[in-house]
Specification:
Elements: H1 2-12, H2 22-36, H3 42-66, H4 68-73, H5 81-84, H6 89-108, H7 112-131, H8 138-158, H9 163-183, H10 188-193, H11 199-203, H12 205-229, H13 234-253, H14 262-287
Length: about 290
């Protein structure tokens, strides 16, 4: 019974997709340690990871709560937990509040600046759920929310702002925005029917894919600039090349009239790209 409930809530928040931003949070943590020479702390790293989990749980559960009526009408999402009645809307909201509280509380154990900025982060990641109702730039808000990961982790270690994690946040911003536009291709007709805003619904599939390609190009450029800025070694560049090649490959899979490989491009390839890139970046930072 308990195991089933846990499984249901993990499915509600699509827990496996935590793999997108989590590696960049860990990059932010090790980047801060490397640049400042601060002693590595498993305790602090655990707090950063918990913040990521609680924040994402809050965002995803709230998104499912906020979109429950649209999800029940969309054939692609009608089998989600709330439309099927597996999880009640009120329960999803309670889950959101619990995780939001745990997120803020955890930042309080890190340092003052992360604690003070935690409500700002929550406003962004929770507010995203309403953006599709009034702006086609909803994809950028999602990208912004996930891009907070390396900045937050850097602040957790140093307690101070720095331009270095901003470069990695930029990588995440353009990368996530780009692949969210691709993901939204599946719902362009539905969005038009129910007056929901998205770039595929506005631009059409072909131009939306071109915009996604452009954004991923910006992400790739920032990968290169970030490597130069932190004076990276060969391991970083191996990870960077693989990351960029996977970006290219996912765009070879998607065509305006052929969307059956979106899940492969969206979930599988981007998850692999994130983990591989972070792994080589961390090796490079540790070796240095």
């Amino acid at each position: 019974m308990i195991k089933t409930k846990i499984s249901n809530y993990l499915s509600l928040v699509t827990f496996s997709h935590t793999i997108f931003a989590m590696p960049f949070a860990i990059i932010g943590y090790f980047l801060a340690s490397s640049q400042t020479g601060q002693k590595f702390s498993w305790y602090l790293l655990l707090l950063v990871v918990l913040c990521m989990v609680f924040a994402r749980n809050s965002a995803m559960a709230f998104n499912r709560f906020a979109d429950r009526h649209f999800d029940s009408l969309n054939p692609r999402t009608a089998l989600r937990e709330i439309p099927l009645g597996i999880i009640k809307p009120g329960s999803a909201m309670i889950f959101t509040m619990i995780n939001s509280t745990l997120f803020i509380a955890t930042t309080g154990f890190i340092n003052t600046i992360t604690f003070r900025l935690s409500p700002v982060a929550l406003i962004i990641i929770l507010g995203y759920s309403f953006t599709k109702r009034f702006t086609v730039f909803c994809h950028f808000v999602l990208g912004l929310g996930l891009s907070l990961a390396p900045i937050g982790a850097y602040l957790a270690v140093t307690g101070k702002f720095n331009w270095l994690p901003l470069m990695f946040s930029g990588i995440v911003l353009f990368w996530v925005t780009g692949f969210d536009i691709v993901y939204a291709l599946q719902d362009d007709d539905f969005d038009k029917s129910y007056s929901l805003k998205s770039l595929p619904a506005l631009l059409g599939r072909k131009r939306a894919i071109l915009l996604s390609t452009l954004l991923h190009t910006f992400s790739a450029i920032l990968v290169i600039f970030a490597g130069i800025a932190i004076k990276s070694g060969e391991y970083y560049w191996i990870g960077a090349i693989i990351f960029i090649l996977l970006l290219i490959y996912q765009h070879l899979l998607i065509k305006p009239d052929k969307l059956n490989r979106i899940n492969l491009a969206f979930a599988t390839l981007n998850g692999i790209a994130s983990v591989i890139f972070a792994t080589f970046v961390l090796i490079d930072l540790i070796v240095k």
